[in-house]
Each structure stands twice: as structure tokens, then as C-alpha cells.
Amino acid sequence: MTESVWIEPYPDDLLEGGLDPEARYELRESVELAFVAALQHLPATQRAVVILRDVLAFSAAEVADLLETSVASVNSALQRARKSLDDRVGGPSQQAILRELGEDKQRELVDAFVTAWERADVPALLELLTEDARFTMPPLPAWFSGREAVGRFLRERVAETRWKLFPIHANGQLAFVAYQGEHGAEELGLGAVTVLTLSAGRILEISGFVDPAMYAAFGLAERISAR
Q1: What are phi and psi for residue 211, nearest 5 degrees?
Q2: Cis peptide bond upstream of 139, omega within 30
Q3: Which tens digits make up the pLDDT trace of 53-86?
Q4: Helices H, strands E: what count in the chain?
Q5: Tens digit of each residue's pLDDT (9 = 90 or more) over 77-125
Q6: How far is CA 217 from CA 9, 10, 12, 180, in A?
Q7: Distances (CA, A) of 157 to 103, 143, 151, 160, 162
Q8: Across the strands, what pairs with 177?
Q9: How far apart are CA 160 and CA 165, in angstroms?
Q10: For FRET with 44, which of 38, 90, 115, 151 sits at 20 to 30 Å CA-CA?
């Protein structure tokens, strides 16, 4: 079991209406999978404070009033929460990685991933991964760690059916809506919302969210034509 089983995918466009670019950047960081997973490990008060202050941008006085405590206590809880989050998340944010990668390289990575996945080209997919890549399927307690284990799962399970992928953005990260069905079927059913976590221009983690209850915010069709 990993912390990834506690998080859900969420579409960026529902978060960012009316925000300026800097605010959108900061908000995307606050919904990245690693950040949301790390939140689960904070004590309840610290979690509430960091969400109210750093995600929703409430003032310390407003948070103190909401939580019926003092401003000093709010500031202390926020400092401890930030330290804990920094220790758990570590490294650059996905926003920093995506900005460094640039739009052209992002587009190349997305196109390569979609093409390889839809063609069941496992060697091509593995070329896109880091050596320590992971594949998870929240909320299932499944964890494939390392290119060898991920490759075996891709060959034995993913490549067994037909797929069509459509690029989206979720949790401030590159993501895909994935439809799946038997080879020769006329229609494909919604199989997953897949979110990529990147490192140095390669894919560090593939998080395939497979619980249909998680898809409501995306407004997705349950089935599409296989053509």
C-alpha cells in the first residue's frame, strides 16, 4: 500500500477560472499528487491550516477565527506543516519540471506516450520511463516498481486489450483519459484517468486512477466508438 491510494485526480480547468498566471501556477503546485499525498500524513490541525493558508489563501487571522485559536498558533502550525511537507515531497515540483521541459518537449512526450500505449509498444513505453519508475492504480493496492516490473505488467495486462488515449491536464500534471476494450469491439469503455509524474524529462510514475467514482468532475463519456 502507498500514499497514492488516498488521492484522486482532479481537472485543472475547474480550479483555475479567473486566476492570473502566477496564481494558477501556485494553485497547480498545491494539487500535485505528491503534495496531496503528503497532506495525508499531517495532523488534522496542521492539514487544515496549510490548506486554508497556502491553498485557499486565507489570512492568518481568518484561519485563527475559523479554527477558534490564536494567530500565533496558526503560524506555528503552518511552519511545522510546511517543514513536514518539504521533507516528504522533496525535489522540484511538477510545475517547475514542466516549465523547464517547455511546451514543445511536453508535446513530444505526450505524443510518444499516446502512440506507444495505443500500439502496445512496450519497449517504446519503457524508453520514456526512469529506471526507478512506478505504476500505481489507485484505489487498488497495486504497486509496480522499477522498469522491469512495470514492463512485465504492461506486457501481461495492458497490452492485452485495445486502448484510446486523450491528453488532458489533472492535478497540475500531464494526464490522459484512457478508454479500453477488447480487440475488435465496436466501442471502448472508460478505463482510467492516468496522471504522469515526471523527473528530468522522463516519466517517474504512472498513476492510473481506476475507480469510476473519481471521474465525475471530468464530465467524461462512459463509452466511445473504437474507430
Answers
A1: -90, 115
A2: yes
A3: 887 789 999 999 999 999 999 999 999 998 888 8
A4: 8, 7
A5: 999 998 888 888 777 888 889 999 999 999 999 999 999 999 999 999 9
A6: 9, 7, 10, 20
A7: 32, 14, 10, 5, 11
A8: 166, 193
A9: 16
A10: 90
